[in-house]
Specification:
Order of helices and strands: HEHEHEHEHEHEHEHEHHEHHEE
Number of helices: 12
Strand order of the largest sheet: 7-6-5-8-9
CATH topology of the largest domain: Rossmann fold
Largest sheet: 5 strands, parallel
CATH superfamily of the largest domain: Aspartate/ornithine carbamoyltransferase
Radius of gyration: 20 Å
Bound molecules: N-carbamoyl-L-aspartate
Number of strands: 11
CATH architecture of the largest domain: 3-Layer(aba) Sandwich
Mean pLDDT: 95
Structural class: alpha/beta
Strand content: 15-25%
Length: 352
Amino acid sequence: MTHKHIIDLDDLTLNELDKITSLADEIYKNPEKYNEACKGKILATLFYEPSTRTQMSFQTAMLKLGGQTIGFDNPMNSSVAKGESLKDTIKIVSGYANIIAMRHPMEGSAKAASFYSSVPVINGGDGGHLHPTQTLTDVVTLHHELGRLDNLCIGVCGDLKNGRTVHSLIKTLSHFKGNRFVLIATKELTIPDYIKKIMDKNGCSYTEVLTLAEAIPQLDVLYMTRIQKERFASEEEYLAQQGVFVLDKEKLKSAKKDLKILHPLPRVDEITIDVDDDPRAIYFKQAVYGVYARMALILLLLDDNSEPAKPSFEGAEECKNPRCISAQEKYLPKCYKTAGNDKICEYCDAKV
Ligand code: NCD
């Protein structure tokens, strides 16, 4: 049997994305209609990195569909502690479960896992690279709350370098007509070049600014993110970035009345608690939509018989990114794809 993996939200066509959004909507309105839809099916959640929302919302989604779950949230309680490779773990688990959701600190890890899985693999976050199901959550949230995904001015604020949620979000929303991004970050934490190239390729305009205050008045959506402490080389470098962007009630005075404030959560100090009561703050609701988004995704994948996209293997060249999974799991085939004039690592998108 063939199936699809969701490593990047671009693995779905815009038509499929629309199908999932509508299905999430339908499940939200009639949840009881779906409470046996995955009876007899098992979801494995393999979380090599901490998680609250992603792991629990996947588990909740499968339980609400009448299925069951297995997995670990601390790899040190699994054979990983004995030195088992990602390949072997995936080969074993794909013999136990019908679908796998995984999170791993190395970039490209979900892609690597998909090479060895006989069941669909969903990327629940691979290091600072991508987080497609958070984007699915964001898309379902915007669809419910705004009724559209196009012609939006979207401010994205915080750690745009290491924040995987914003990489996936920009990739997906840059496909929709008339969207414009305002990227709010310090010089040290700007968005990776490959994401800028994707916006350019999709004809999506963007500006880069250094303060929240200058961005806020024009925004339809403000996507706040935390500084990704765990991705910094030293505590000192993190402390230099901490607390630079803080959204508070005062700053919101210049915002549109119907602004939507999103955050993938967890929040550290980038949104003050008093903003929570503002009707424009919808980040807690957003986490609830995540369950319905994942229910729809699980249903689509378990019902899908299409061929997964084949890795391109356009050529073999060692990736120099130390955070790439190919730097850790040495048996992985070295492979790159071409994007414009660049050769890009198949796993982590870094230039090779
Ligand atoms: C995000 C993540 O893990 O990337 N959280 C989430 O999944 N909702 C955001 C973050 O950790 O900052």
